[in-house]
Amino acid sequence: MRIATAAAFLALAIPAVAYAHHGWSSYDASRPMVVTGPVVSSTYGNPHGSLEIRHEGALWSVVLAPPSRMTARGLSADMIAEGREVTVEGYPRKDGTPEIRAERITAEGKTIELR
């Protein structure tokens, strides 16, 4: 009985976890774009970093790479700290939400590939 209960729980939990983390299919790779502006807030944590930047009067959410990849490629948390100016190249969400999946970022004059 316990095995059946555990199996049922896993069958329900795994899709929920997968759904909670957005997939890349929600971004439009046919419409690359560039946003530039000051960082309003940033996180440098797992499963990936994120930013909010002010671009042309709108607040844009930016999905970055995992911290281990950013560190390995030379992007430190300090480079994307609040108040820093950054340029992000990537793909916008298909549903029009002001969010971009970053492919590369330029901070402190250095361009870092994230994917």
From TrEMBL:
Highest rank taxon of the organism: Bacteria
A Pfam family hit: DUF6152
InterPro entries (UniProt xref): DUF6152
Keywords associated with the record: Signal
Signal peptide: 1-20
UniProt protein name: DUF5666 domain-containing protein
Organism: Tistrella mobilis (strain KA081020-065)
